[in-house]
Inverse folding.
């Protein structure tokens, strides 16, 4: 879904910029101005002195311009980070031993890892993100631990059971993992 939205928005933005730029170029080269064009002829400037200085003496003008530009900059930076962010691994190549291989959906492995990790003693929630290449996947796991959980025991169980099970099931040589843990806060109990 985000890929589709990204492509549609980029396509629409590209078409608008192409229409405006093409119109400016065509009028500048002597073509007749389109009916929707705001200026009349080839030697007409885009912003004359009157249009450029019309709002200069109003107190709201510059703060509004700066605010709009700041919002546009923040939206552009947000979009850029969303595009450059590492994507999930869509599929994993599983060696079946016959030379052909099979493909395992990345979301299926993520779901299984998250379910098994969340079922461990002391784990409240688990989120798994699969990265890397098809033949060398890596995991990033975020675990939310219960207040009573021992992180070292949880990490040991996660490594020896959950990750080992996933590695063996997918016939992977290794499954490098980055595990981040944080503790779930609990409310103070009043003693009376």
């Amino acid at each position: 879904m985000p890929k589709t939205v990204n492509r549609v928005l980029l396509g629409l933005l590209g078409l608008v910029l192409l229409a405006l730029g093409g119109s400016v170029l065509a009028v500048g080269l002597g073509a007749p101005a389109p009916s929707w064009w705001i200026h009349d002829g080839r030697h007409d400037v885009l912003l004359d002195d009157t249009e450029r200085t019309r709002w200069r003496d109003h107190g709201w003008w510059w703060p509004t311009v700066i605010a709009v530009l700041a919002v546009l900059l923040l939206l552009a930076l947000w979009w850029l980070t969303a595009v450059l962010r590492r994507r999930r691994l869509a599929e994993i190549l599983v060696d079946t031993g016959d030379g052909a291989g099979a493909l395992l959906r990345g979301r299926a492995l993520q779901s299984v890892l998250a379910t098994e990790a969340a079922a461990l003693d002391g784990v409240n929630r688990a989120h798994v993100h699969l990265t890397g290449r098809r033949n060398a996947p890596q995991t990033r796991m975020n675990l939310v631990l219960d207040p009573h959980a021992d992180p070292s025991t949880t990490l040991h169980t996660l490594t020896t059971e959950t990750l080992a099970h996933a590695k063996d099931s997918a016939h992977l040589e290794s499954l490098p993992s980055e595990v981040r843990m944080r503790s779930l806060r609990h409310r103070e109990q009043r003693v009376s």
